[in-house]
Design brief:
Elements lengths: L1 E5 L2 E4 L4 E8 L7 E7 L6 E6 L6 E3 L7 E6 L4 E6 L8 E8 L12 E2 L3 E6 L1
Parallel strand pairs: 2-11
Antiparallel strand pairs: 1-3, 3-8, 4-5, 4-9, 5-6, 7-8, 9-10, 9-11
Length: about 120
């Protein structure tokens, strides 16, 4: 299984970014997908998740209304549209895959991408 996340960068507060993650080596439609982030000195935390069929999405409170997770099963990809970015959103963002339905804990995800850095300056 391989997950590759990309799309990070350095932006100003209020800007937008769209992260992508492409999955290979797994039956994509069987997997719940998630985005996590880890800021320097902090634990990795759940940001957003989407169920295998793309029917249900979950978000941590601090991104509700600003971030949107989606998936394209025809291309085995997920996306994270991030709008109105804030300096506190600065972190390495990871995509992850699990067969556990609507999981949110990092330990519930066995497969991880390499991470993509998002830096938001004020």
């Amino acid at each position: 299984v391989q997950l590759q996340a990309f799309g990070g960068g350095s932006v100003q507060a209020g800007d937008s970014l769209r992260l992508s993650c492409v999955a290979s080596g797994l039956t994509f439609n069987n997997y719940n997908m998630g985005w996590f982030r880890q800021a320097p000195g902090k634990d990795r935390e759940f940001v957003a998740g989407i169920d295998p069929e793309g029917r249900y999405t979950d978000y941590k409170d601090f991104v509700k209304g600003r971030f949107t997770i989606s998936r394209d099963s025809t291309k085995s990809r997920i996306f994270l549209q991030m709008n109105n970015l804030k300096p506190e959103d600065t972190a390495v963002y990871y995509c992850a895959a699990t067969t556990l339905y609507r999981a949110q804990a990092p330990l519930q995800y066995p497969y991880w991408g390499q991470g993509t850095l998002v830096t938001v300056s004020s």
